[in-house]
Amino acid sequence: MVAQPTDLHDADTQDAAAAAACPVDHTAFTGAGTGDSAHHGYEPFDMTDPFPAYERLRTEEPVMYDERIGYWVVTRWADVRAVFDDWETFSSENAQAPVRERGAEATRIMKEGGFTAYSGLSARIPPDHTRIRAIAQRAFTPRRFKALEPTIRENTRTALQRMLESPDRQGDVLHDIAFDIPTITILTLLGVDPAMVPTYKRWSDSRGAMTWGDLSDEQQVPHAHNLVEYWQECQRLVVEAHQRGGDSLIADLVEAQGAGAEITDHEIASLCYSLLFAGHETTTTLIANSIRVLLSHREAWEAIVADPSRIPSAIDEVLRYSGSIVAWRRKALRDAEIGGVKIPEGAGILLVMGSANRDEEVFAHPEVFDIARTDARNHMSFGYGIHYCLGNMLAKLQDRIVLEETAAAVPSLRLTGEPIAFGENLSFRAPTSVPVTWEA
Ligand code: HEM
């Protein structure tokens, strides 16, 4: 008897369940198992259910050149880890480069708008990366995060209450809870008025689409305007911190600069540009995914309702099983080898952490969601090595608070069963809604 997920619309599991139940040989269409399919069923931008293709890649061609995107796709845990670890050979300088070339009109708009933003940290390389990260890290104090905890809890309770007022007991975890909470948190941290949430969400959507999306030249145009506005706002925030100081991460960086830290205003504005994106998009997805995956494995949801001390390990398992970022980029600075495959100097590499996190060489029964797993923390959803995510504790803190509050307030929460879609993207695997209902 094959264990069935409780919700067949959970895209993380539906294919496994469907494959177990369906008499049709799907491998006939994908070429899976034969090794003759061009890409083993891998579709770089399709985030609906990439896991069966990842599994085939790990088995059949763990280091595969994909000419459609111009990247070497790396899918085994050990290879992904080795590339992350060797920053001298594999640089992160392409991590934020547009996947699709920027069109002429978008380029003109951005140039005329004075858009000169550069990655705050993730695409910087040593020695600049080392210098800026050390300064930024000092501003990321546990004291700052701790101070935010009551506000995060309060915001969660307000959002939950509003959702639970729905007369027909219909909600959407993504829009009703997961959208606002991390955005308010990062805006508060950076000293921005939380009333700006919708504006920052609009700018962030543009940032995600322009860098990791598959947009035509024409589709890029409105996003180019948004990025110009977004960058102008980051620069204004730095000027304001110089003039007024205040209790924010930007003010801390400006103060550090005044005290002799080697960081320019442009670098501080670039950090804002990065944090105002990295600081919420992925956490929104983590919160939405946590509730989605736990509800679709009812026994896990009931376990955290009965014993909230299990929430931290449940979060690690969600990050392993359904991470917010499933792929991240690197560039070979010299001729190299990955998993025995020769990689030429200058080649782009796509590290598929979403696949590494399900590598059967590392995780027993990797396709099973199990919050009792003791090695879930070996996931690579926050990257690894010198660029390891600076905000991982803040992301987990917020997710823990949301899960604690939600499990306590509405233990009867469940998915409605409507299919859940995921936006097209090379790196970010984010549901577009998580419809839920609950008992009266
Ligand atoms: C679930 C939530 C999050 C996920 C999945 C995530 C994932 C990642 C990943 C994959 C990287 C690249 C690591 C590498 O190249 O090795 C990264 C870097 C980074 N993240 Fe996060 N992140 C999350 C939340 C946050 C938050 C809340 C913040 C800030 C408040 C943040 C700030 C950063 C920064 C600044 C870097 C660049 C670090 C460096 O290059 O030195 N992240 N994150």
TrEMBL record:
InterPro entries: Cyt_P450, Cyt_P450_B, Cyt_P450_CS, Cyt_P450_sf. It holds the Pfam family p450. The keyword Coiled coil does not apply. It comes from the Bacteria. Keywords: Heme, Iron, Metal-binding, Monooxygenase, Oxidoreductase. PROSITE patterns: CYTOCHROME_P450. The keyword Metal-binding applies. Gene3D superfamilies: Cytochrome P450. Belongs to the cytochrome P450 family. This is Cytochrome P450. It comes from Microbacterium aurantiacum.
